[in-house]
């Protein structure tokens, strides 16, 4: 007998009925289960030769673990972990175990969600609001992404950060470096945390995060500690050129740790400094004249443009002219490198663009995180963003280094590490 009912269930106001999402989740559940099955069968094939005394297989299937819910980008997906049994182990130490790479033992979220949390924080969402912000995407209550879970994640990120800080750099070589200090104020402290950031370009043209350290201010001592740290971990060959703003602390420390590295002042910062010394009514015209300098097709043309600038403004705006002239050589150093790299070397944009969200976060909300947690959030964001950084153009023109020897324009230049000097 078939029961019939005329009761129609009503959707609650806070529930989202999306058939497409339901189909995606069902498909994800099926694909995940199939992948786990293939993984355990592959493992069993590798130990198929192991037999017991009576000829039976030593390692066999042993059912499934409890069903658990994994948070994914399409919402919660239920899955059970496959288990195996070692029937021939005489002791616990000899037991053969199966560990799933797809579904780790304690996994509750996909790694992409862990990477999403720093982005949400830097977009102005407090940790207490993560659950509400992700409800529409991940389902009601967004399980496994509560503030307590975020706190545990920051503890994991602390360990990752410490391992990253200790990594060996002896096999690395950076021809160009960009340096800048980024200020982040958390929890309304009366002073800002200064994040010292060092990004480098390898001879293959790939940009990488070299150093990331937090100090109270952007001082010579803070930069010295960062540069000495990367040098002690193996970065012995000095970069060809360093790009930075007018922070004297960095340039002083650079000359002490890597005295052979040339200076390139950031044109964006210098333009702001020059325009700050003239009335607002003059700034638009002066900015156009400054652009004629750093967009010049050659160093000679840039030198001539600076002379024209000085002649045009020296009578009324001598302070602005002096501000430009005192760093003349450092502002034009990029012209001595391949023209394909000028766009990269004119400014500290590789750092500015990445940390724009950090400044945005500081303005929007002084937040719910401690300075340490904010630092870890920013670190995770930068590590994630570094995978998509734009490579240098014309990488075939970068200096090549073999066993401490740099070959550039057919000239062999020997670099002797300081601790090997006679």
From TrEMBL:
Source domain of life: Bacteria
Keywords, sorted A to Z: DNA recombination, DNA-binding, Transposable element, Transposition
Protein family per UniProt: Belongs to the transposase mutator family.
Function (record text): Required for the transposition of the insertion element.
UniProt-recorded name of the protein: Mutator family transposase
């Amino acid at each position: 007998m078939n029961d019939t009912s005329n009761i129609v269930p009503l959707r609650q106001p806070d529930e989202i009925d999306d058939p497409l999402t339901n189909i995606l989740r069902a498909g994800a559940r099926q694909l995940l289960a199939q992948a786990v099955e293939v993984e355990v069968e592959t493992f069993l094939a590798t130990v198929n030769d192991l037999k017991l005394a009576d000829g039976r297989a030593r390692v066999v299937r042993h059912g499934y673990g409890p069903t658990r819910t994994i948070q994914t980008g399409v919402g919660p997906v239920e899955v059970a972990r496959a288990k195996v049994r070692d029937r021939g182990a005489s002791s616990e130490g000899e037991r053969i175990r199966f560990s799933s790479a797809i579904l780790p033992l304690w996994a509750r979220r996909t790694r992409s969600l862990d990477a999403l949390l720093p982005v949400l924080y830097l977009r102005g969402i407090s940790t207490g609001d993560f659950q509400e912000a992700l409800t529409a995407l991940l389902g009601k209550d967004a399980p496994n992404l509560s503030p307590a879970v975020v706190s545990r994640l920051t503890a994991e990120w602390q360990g990752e950060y410490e391992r990253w800080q200790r990594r060996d750099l002896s096999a690395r070589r950076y021809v160009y470096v960009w340096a800048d200090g980024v200020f982040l104020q958390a929890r309304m402290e009366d002073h800002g945390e200064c994040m010292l950031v060092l990004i480098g370009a390898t001879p293959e043209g790939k940009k990488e995060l070299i150093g990331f350290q937090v100090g109270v201010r952007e001082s010579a001592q803070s930069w010295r500690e960062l540069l000495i740290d990367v040098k002690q971990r193996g970065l012995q060959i000095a970069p060809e050129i360093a790009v930075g703003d007018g922070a004297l602390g960095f340039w002083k420390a650079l000359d002490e740790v890597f005295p052979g590295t040339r200076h390139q002042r950031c044109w964006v910062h210098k333009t702001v400094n020059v325009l700050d010394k003239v009335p607002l009514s003059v700034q638009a015209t002066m900015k156009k004249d400054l652009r004629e300098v750093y967009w010049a097709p050659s160093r000679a043309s840039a030198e001539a443009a600076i002379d024209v600038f000085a002649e045009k403004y020296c009578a009324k705006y001598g302070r602005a002219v002096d501000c430009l002239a005192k760093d003349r050589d450092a502002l034009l150093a990029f012209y001595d490198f391949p023209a394909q790299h000028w766009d990269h070397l004119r400014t500290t944009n590789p750092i500015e663009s990445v940390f724009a969200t950090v400044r945005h976060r500081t303005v929007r909300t002084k937040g719910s995180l401690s300075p340490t947690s904010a630092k870890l959030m920013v670190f995770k964001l930068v590590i994630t963003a570094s995978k998509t950084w734009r490579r240098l153009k014309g990488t075939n023109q970068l200096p090549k280094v073999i066993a401490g020897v740099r070959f550039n324009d057919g000239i062999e230049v020997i670099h002797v590490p300081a601790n090997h000097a006679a």
